[in-house]
Amino acid sequence: MVYNRLAFGNAYRYTCLYHKFLIVQCRNFANCIKRPDVKLVDGKLVGVHFEDMFANKSTAHNGARFVPHPFNRRFAYSKRPLFPIEPRNLRILGLKHKKRRGRGHKSSARGVRFSRRKKVGSVPRSRTFEGGTTPLYKRLAKWPDAWLSRQRKRLDPLNLSKLRYFIETGRLDTRFPITQRHLFDSKCVRVKRGVQLFNVNDYPFPYKIDIEVAGSDQSSIDVIKRVGGTVTIVYMDRINLRAHLKPYKFEILPKMSRPSLPMVHYLEKMKSRGCLVRYIKPLWLIEEEAEIAAEVAESKGPTDEPVKADIVEDIDDMVQEYRMKERTKKLII
């Protein structure tokens, strides 16, 4: 039989190397022909069958255990249980039967017999499947609060114990105000929408710090203020926060944006909890504060008339200055 070297590739090469190894080993041993399991036929070493080795009475088997040796491939063994790779024991992948799996409708070339037909319903369907009709969870209207709660942007939490750990390891300096950029650069928290402090079970915090964040709970505010520190809530929108964290990405830093009505309510609520709040007041808030101040001054009576006039004049000046800035901004644009 003639084997095609290209067809069998490495198997043919390994077989040739194995034969070469046997011949070299046998040439190195002078007494290899004297062994009963190897004989020389036409100048080639040939292995002797186990039964033929002990056919003569002179070489009868004494009942001892047969010890194989590497010169006979039929009884050779190695640490790896792998038979010799030869062309005769390689699989022909072209003769392998390929399974024809069913796709789509009809029988997929399997006939109509029950023994060979596709198994319908073997895979369990979903619990919400109702036989092809629209399931119940799709027929009912969506509850808006559930969707809105998932869409609500939440701040990045920072545990006060983690902040204490970063201070004790020297990664944050308490001598200077700690801003969100310091927390971001020290890898204390990954800032995306703003940092919110929280404390678990009133964990003690002995360091006096001045920290600027986007939100905080009451426990963190009380613990920091107890040792003489301050918590400042700074309002920043997405662009302002990005410019605060990575100012090197901006040629001109953007102006601080004004908060919306719900955000103003939140900031004032944080102010009532004991925080310092820093944000740019919108025009409508300035006007409302002016009206309230005028009403308060009017309610005090005629004795406080000069005080009332001074307050109103100061507030009017602030409103006029703000309106002039807005007009000049529009002209520049």
Which helices and strands, and how do they pair?
Blueprint: H1 5-8, H2 10-28, E1 38-41, E2 44-47, H3 50-53, H4 136-139, H5 144-151, E3 156-159, H6 160-168, H7 180-185, E4 195-198, E5 210-213, E6 215-216, H8 218-226, E7 230-234, H9 238-245, H10 261-272, E8 276-278, H11 283-299, H12 305-332
Helix pairs in contact: 11-12
Description:
The protein has 333 residues and is mostly helical. It folds into 3 domains: 86 residues, no CATH class; 125 residues, Ribosomal Protein L15, Chain: K, domain 2; 49 residues. The strands form 3 sheets. A 3-stranded parallel sheet has the order 3-4-6. β1 and β2 form a beta hairpin. α11 runs antiparallel to α12. Belongs to the universal ribosomal protein uL15 family. This is 54S ribosomal protein L10 mitochondrial. Keywords: Ribonucleoprotein, Ribosomal protein. InterPro entries: Ribosomal_uL15/eL18, Ribosomal_uL15/eL18_sf, Ribosomal_uL15_bac-type.
